[in-house]
Amino acid sequence: MDFPNVLLQIEKACADMQVQATRIAGEKIIMSFKQMPGNLEACKYVLVIIKRSLEDYHDGEKHAVITDLQSFVSMGGYSQLIGIGLSNSLVDEFSSTKASNVGLPWDFHKKSKDFFENTYLLPIFELTLRVNDAILGLSLSLAEKSLCWDFSYKNDTLLAGTFAKEGSDIIEEELFITTKTRLHGDIFESEEQIIEYVIIMKQEILELINNLSNNVAERPTSTLEYGPDLLSIAQMTRRLLCTISLPILCKVPEISTFLHEVAQLSATCLRESVVVKDNYGYFIEDSFSTWSLEAFDELLIIWVKLVQCSSHNEIPHHQITSNQGLIAFLGEASYHIAATYIDTRLEIAKYSTNDEEEESNNFKDW
């Protein structure tokens, strides 16, 4: 779409709409833009205009912005895509970091942001949830039908309603779980709901850890393909444990067992990140070690956060006595992980130094 040319056409059409004789022609030009390819890209420019004009709108026009977005989304099809695109751009334009630079003063942006979060933000969030619920409902129904498919070809390992082994990677996809590991705040009505949420999420993460361990054990020669899974599990674990406060974590049943598994996963990631040599003394290029180190970086954030919280007396005094074992474990595990991290870094540095010496034919630059 030629945006400068489109702008000229819009300005001319708007001018025509101010004159009674050319009003109908101007309206037709404006309405024709919805048929143009690439109009979704123009959403952000539309929202710049809306933001700039907010002070000139009366209350009815301000409310009409959300009403129009809801109408777009309810139409379905391409109109729904336009509605979601406009909503996405609307959030960006009123945010602190992604607003377009159009020469407006800071106080205008601040005032607009305050208005947006008090008026538009919640309706847009509700709009998004309704779309997600509709799509997820259809997707879950489709997934259930697929999983219950009565295969024509059956043998001892392939029963009705059971996918072949080739489908295991798809079925074990953890992307959906990843999106649910950062829930927090007023969305939970009580501390009991938070604890129940943590229990469910830690069980899901433990299952993923066990599945990953079993897969790597079965096919140790192809660990590279599990690198993204390892990083995803580490990210989910970090989001969960760094979002929930330590006093609440201490109340979760069997949280010590879960943290023990996380500690083992952290140590494993560090061990896997060490560069190794083959039988001929050459370095083995293994990208899985990179995945392991990235995963450990995520897990290290957890241990730093937990130790800081426990050392800063964030746990109420009445909880300290009943959680002395957990607090001691946090200190011991963090010390062990930090020591292993230092040893691993020294090992990597040693390999790197030896490799540089071999490549320079043992000539050192003193």
Automatic annotation (TrEMBL):
- Tell me where in or outside the cell this protein is found: Cytoplasm; Nucleus
Write down the PANTHER family for this protein, in alphabetical order. EXPORTIN 4,7-RELATED (PTHR12596), EXPORTIN-4 (PTHR12596:SF1)
Q: Which segments of the protein form a coiled coil according to its record?
A: none
Concerning its family, UniProt says:
Belongs to the exportin family.
Q: Does the keyword Protein transport apply?
A: yes
Source organism per entry reads Diversispora eburnea
Task: Provide this UniProt record's keywords sorted from A to Z.
Answer: Cytoplasm, Nucleus, Protein transport, Transport
The molecular function terms in GO held by this entry are:
nuclear export signal receptor activity
Predominant location category: cytoplasm
One Gene Ontology cellular component annotation?
nuclear pore
Gene Ontology biological process terms from the UniProt entry: protein export from nucleus
User: This protein is called what?
Assistant: 902_t:CDS:1
